[in-house]
């Protein structure tokens, strides 16, 4: 066996310096390239507007005269770019992709919002951005950007929905949020629509105290009111919550109810000993992976014969839920 030579501290410092020099040069060159691109684009727009290129002469009258540049900072993932914006005597020319008064790239603004949503305080968000982009942001700026989220959420809840979804997935999830008194968990009801081509979209979410029939009925009525009437719904997939099942019968009585196999598999494996996990899992999978309902029911009978003595309660619950677990075969 070959002898492994330990890495000396001197060699570790060499590697660290090499990485810093290499990546620092890459980021520096990228930042410089973007800076040049924006400035040249600004100059091209100015020259097209003025009607004259550099050093051009002619008999026709000039529409505008160049009036130098002004500087502004633009924060990107590669750091802060100091841009020279070309102008004439009556107009300035922002390069494509930059909006008036925009001080940071949209991806940096998204980073600020994402960090805030993950529970990082407004002051700490500014530090994170400073580490990544070299430009800090104030707590007030973070608060202003995150207030935009309230408007986006309001528009999401009022948007009209198309009625072309074949499947509707409903579930209750627990999320951690930040409050002045600390972090706490809240219950959210969510609805995803899936079209026949496989595309999936979040269609609604609602904060609630639990998963009662009234809570779920409020979310489903909102979906119906905004346009998802369920005329093309093939299946509504749920985890088996009784309140949700009752709400579905009121709002979407014609849609078939499909129990979620992911939740059911999790419940099955929670009831069996670890040494039986693999066998129980493969036996349950044989049910929903069957080619037909008849074969799926035969798979369940085999599963029941194998496990009813050791895990009688688990097998009874599976047998009780089997009709809704096999709805997709209809």
The number of helical segments is: 10
Biggest sheet statistics: 5 strands, mixed
User: Can you count the beta strands?
Assistant: 7
Helix content estimate? 40-55%
Q: Strand percentage, roughly?
A: 15-25%
Strand order of the largest sheet: 5-4-3-6-7
Please state the structural category.
Answer: alpha/beta
Residue-averaged pLDDT: 79
**Over the alpha carbons, how many angstroms does the gyration radius reach?**
30 Å
- Terminal-residue CA separation: 63 Å
Q: How many structural domains can be distinguished in the coordinates?
A: 3
- Low-confidence parts: 1-5
Shape: elongated
Quick description:
The chain is of the alpha/beta class.
Topology, pairings included?
Layout: H1 9-50, E1 66-76, E2 79-88, H2 106-117, H3 122-133, H4 139-158, E3 167-179, E4 182-194, E5 200-208, H5 213-225, E6 235-238, H6 242-251, E7 256-259, H7 261-271, H8 277-288, H9 293-307, H10 312-325
Parallel strand pairs: 3-6, 6-7
Antiparallel strand pairs: 1-2, 3-4, 4-5
Helix pairs in contact: 2-3, 2-4, 3-4, 5-6, 7-8, 8-9
Describe the structure using short key phrases.
330 residues; 3 domains; 10 helices; 49% helix; Nucleotidyltransferase, domain 5
Provide a descriptive summary of the structure in words.
The chain is 49% helix and 19% strand. With 330 residues, it is α/β, with parallel strands linked by helices. It folds into three domains: 66-158, no CATH class; 167-258, 2-Layer Sandwich (Nucleotidyltransferase, domain 5); 261-329. The strands form two sheets. Strands 5-4-3-6-7 form a five-stranded mixed β-sheet. It has a two-stranded antiparallel sheet with strand order 1-2. Helix 3 (122-133) crosses helix 4.
């Amino acid at each position: 066996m070959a002898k492994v030579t330990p890495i000396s501290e001197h060699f570790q410092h060499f590697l660290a310096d090499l990485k810093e020099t290499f990546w620092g040069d890459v980021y520096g060159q990228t930042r410089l390239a973007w800076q040049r691109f924006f400035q040249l684009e600004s100059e091209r727009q100015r020259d097209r507007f003025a009607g004259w290129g550099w050093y051009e002469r002619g008999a026709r009258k000039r529409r505008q005269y160049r009036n130098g540049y002004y500087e502004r900072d633009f924060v990107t993932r590669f750091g802060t770019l100091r841009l020279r914006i070309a102008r004439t005597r009556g107009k300035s020319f922002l390069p494509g992709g930059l909006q008036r008064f925009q001080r940071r790239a949209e991806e940096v603004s998204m980073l600020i919002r994402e960090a805030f949503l993950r529970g990082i305080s407004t002051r700490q968000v500014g530090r994170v951005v400073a580490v990544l982009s070299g430009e800090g942001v104030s707590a007030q700026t973070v608060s202003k950007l995150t207030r935009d989220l309230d408007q986006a959420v309001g528009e999401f809840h009022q948007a009209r929905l198309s009625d072309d979804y074949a499947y509707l997935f409903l579930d209750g999830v627990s999320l951690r949020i930040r409050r002045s008194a600390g972090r706490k968990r809240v219950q959210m009801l969510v609805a995803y629509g899936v079209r026949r081509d496989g595309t999936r979209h979040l269609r609604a979410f609602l904060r609630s105290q639990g998963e009662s029939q009234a809570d779920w009925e409020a979310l489903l009525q909102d979906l119906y009111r905004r346009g998802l009437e369920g005329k093309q719904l093939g299946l509504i997939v749920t985890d088996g919550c009784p309140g949700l099942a009752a709400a579905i019968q009121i709002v979407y009585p014609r849609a078939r109810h499909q129990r979620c196999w992911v939740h059911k598999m999790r419940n099955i494996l929670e009831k069996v000993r670890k040494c039986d996990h693999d066998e129980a899992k493969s036996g349950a999978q044989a049910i929903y992976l069957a080619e037909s309902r008849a074969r799926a029911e035969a798979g369940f009978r085999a599963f029941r014969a194998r496990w009813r003595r050791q895990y009688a309660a688990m097998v009874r619950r599976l047998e009780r839920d089997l009709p809704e677990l096999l709805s997709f075969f209809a």
